[in-house]
């Protein structure tokens, strides 16, 4: 989220919900409403590996908030973003995870995404 978008959807200043840095209570309500049309996720990921993710469907919180990778026997760990993307139907490839499979690895910074015009 760009600073402009954060400002546009903030409803009460700096109030943050679900442990996220940039998710305001007002925007959380908007996302929950949008999820009636189909499941969606909100994620935050830092360059140094910190991740947080949540998924809504049918107007309700259905997964998360997640902030710790999970690991199952004899498999690689699965980060919060990949867990959320799995809930939305993404499947990892042989050499990557769900994050890579949906193309989130194309840019490292929010400003790069915004400048690319790619959604």
Count of beta strands: 3
Instruction: Please give the radius of gyration in angstroms.
Output: 15 Å
Beta fraction of the residues?
15-25%
SSE series:
HHEEEHHH
Can you summarize the main beta sheet? 3 strands, antiparallel
Percent of residues in helical segments? 25-40%
Strands in their spatial order, largest beta sheet = 1-2-3
Overall shape: it is: globular
Detailed description of the structure:
With 119 residues, the protein is α+β, with helices and mostly antiparallel strands. Helix content is 30%, strand content 17%. A three-stranded antiparallel beta sheet has the order 1-2-3, with helices on both faces. A hairpin with a 5-residue loop joins strand 1 (40-45) and strand 2 (51-57).
């Amino acid at each position: 989220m760009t600073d402009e978008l954060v400002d546009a959807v903030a409803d009460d200043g700096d109030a943050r919900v679900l442990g996220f840095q940039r998710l305001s209570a007002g925007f959380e309500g908007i996302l929950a409403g949008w999820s009636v049309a189909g499941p969606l996720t909100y994620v935050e990921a830092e360059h140094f590996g910190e991740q947080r993710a949540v998924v809504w469907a049918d107007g309700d919180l259905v997964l998360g908030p997640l902030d710790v990778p999970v690991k199952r026997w004899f498999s690689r760990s699965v980060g919060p973003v990949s867990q959320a993307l799995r809930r939305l139907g993404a499947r990892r490839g042989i050499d990557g995870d769900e994050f890579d499979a949906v193309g989130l690895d194309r840019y490292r910074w929010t400003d790069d995404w915004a400048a690319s015009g790619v959604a």
